[in-house]
């Protein structure tokens, strides 16, 4: 997983922390790939990992330089596996990102640089009997029976262990099996029971900690060099440590040299293809692994299961290449392959037949292409239209005529138009011709049957395909207004039933049907564009209108809404009234004073001047709101409007004066109510708020003889950025007024004085108020503006 530059830049891990993290993770047995991914996630770069690797190597060098030879061997044994894994993680803190298109990849080349396949030797397996001991190996000698003892020692650099009462015993170069037999003879001098025929005393040598060996990986690998590996390591693990082969390295001829002699030749393809591991031998001290350049690299593309490049050995054939590629894909043309070959001067094309695949040797640079089969049929027939099983059929000895094909398709459907079918035929030059077919006569046997050819398409139309049936539609006061498929003899009542019946609000005295004018024989245009029929209904049946009337395709039915139908309309009153709650309106002219009277009148604590009316916005009002906001967006910009929080809302506040409405019922102050209105009658609030560009926003007790300046003084006076001439007041009922001069009449209980700020240069409050007036007394708009200004 690649790290983002931001995450890498924010890495907070020091080099020492990275080193400690890797050491701890290895001691806890964490997966190397997980640790590498975590380091990359924490921002550790490849450069930092290289620094930490050098730090780790220096640390190991300092520590071992102060030890004796035996101590150094012990240290190497303890840390051999950990060091190998630690450097592996540090060398690759980020997963390999070398990705190529599959056809450009060389098969098997990535096997030694994947994080999931390390070939690391397991430390939990029993010691193989043929394991050859050497300096640095820790051996455990267990003695049991009539005597009990355990000897645990490390083979010294001179190849010996020191056994008490016996002295140095040379084990270097012996296999574990040979060492067991040798120790029986040596220890038999001290433990006499070892030679007893009854086996009263037994001895067994096993390996404790394996030694570290040094091997050299040379040739065409990513990172050639000398590597310290566990003595259990094999050729594949060494190749993994070296990063795998490079772009010219061979996977088919990896050589292991020991003491100047080649002891193994490894073909990695045998492991990948067949799972063979006998050539993946265990390495010994001083072994040299040589990866030569490949002899031949061949590419196969097209319709094979594994299109990519493959390394080929001498005398391997095209059949071998196909096997390496996983065989042909299902749509491959297998009878021949195209090979592009270099002849030393230029390219040449060879077409290799299937019979020659096993005898055609591959050469370096060959490019093989497997084509796809042709996208055509040798014996296809098709029948479409009014048969029970339309589709594709086989042209054979039984199905080779029109009658046989129709019978194979399970016969004609009832709506089949049999007087004339269409047979589409492909000529030799791939053009098509149309042949008319009298299916009725052929099926009846009165006309000769027509022979079929490959790729013939027989189309038998339905009578419905040949006429424009259309739909009928119903609108208005029905349960499911929609378009419905037309049927012969469909009546108005039938369509109403299909639409779920009439709604409660439907008018039964007028149902209109509109019909388009159709005159296929007309030779001139007319002014008429349609016909209209009107009907009356009773109990779902037509009682007035054209008798025997049936619908025609494309008719439109309109069920009108009864003008006398009215659903209940409710309004609500809350606050300081005797009986607050929801009330049903009884007339379309019900007013504020009527609602208060229904609620038993106002209480003695009611403050009628502060009453507020909240109204639900209808579609027209919302449209006007959107129009105003769009206009303001163009004037001030969307960013300004977003910051003001001005938006289309479902409700708005209507400025009212309930005190005057109650005093003058039916007057212009006594507004007509609308469904959903909520009238809120508050208690007297004898305070005044001061907000905006003042020294200290404050709430002050209301005094009837004080003007605006008094309340502003109670807030510390104007701030430096105050627009003194633009101050205004918002009343409890939602109304807004400018404050001019020293008038005290503008100040009422519960109101809020707002002083705008000069910093809002981009928007003029007066302009916004002017736009907002288009809403029709939308006090909510002004409250939003005041909240913005005081921020």
TrEMBL record:
Gene3D superfamilies, alphabetized: Outer membrane lipoprotein wza domain like, wza like domain
Cellular compartments annotated: Cell outer membrane
Topology of this chain in the membrane: Multi-pass membrane protein
One GO cellular component term: pore complex
Soluble ligand binding domain: residues covered: 298-347, 472-519, 571-619
Lineage of producing organism: Bacteria, Pseudomonadati, Bacteroidota, Bacteroidia, Bacteroidales
Protein name: Capsule biosynthesis protein
Organism (species): Phocaeicola plebeius
InterPro entries in the record: Poly_export (IPR049712), Poly_export_N (IPR003715), SLBB_dom (IPR054765), Soluble_ligand-bd (IPR019554)
Region annotation Disordered: where it falls in the sequence: 59-98
Ranges annotated as biased composition (Polar residues): 60-72, 83-95
GO BP annotations listed: monoatomic ion transport
Keyword Mitochondrion set for record: no
